[in-house]
Amino acid sequence: xxxxxxxxxxxxxxxxxxxxxxxxxxxxxxxxxxxxxxxxxxxxxxxxxxxxxxxxxxxxxxxxxxxxxxxxxxxxxxxxxxxxxxxxxxxxxxxxxxxxxxxxxxxxxxxxxxxxxxxxxxx
Length: 123
Prior knowledge:
- 75% of the residues lie in helices and 0% in strands.
- The chain is mostly helical.
């Protein structure tokens, strides 16, 4: 039974661009853990840009495990995810948690990340 489940994993979902973006994200984490100086745009905006291509690629991988290798997200799925992240992290959470701050540039970066996923990774 385990062989059948492992055979359903569609590793080709993770395209080279995904691995490049994941490497940039991990590099940014290491940079932060080392407490090295970073440019202001990296501190405030890099994670927002990388968020949706990474999250949606992993979600697509899981969906393909359950529903088959031909699954793709429609533009509406990606748009819904962009709106969900924008509303949650830029409007709702800042109202109730001081750790979060709302920023419209982040919304634009979520949209750009969603477009990058839809155009290059949703294959």
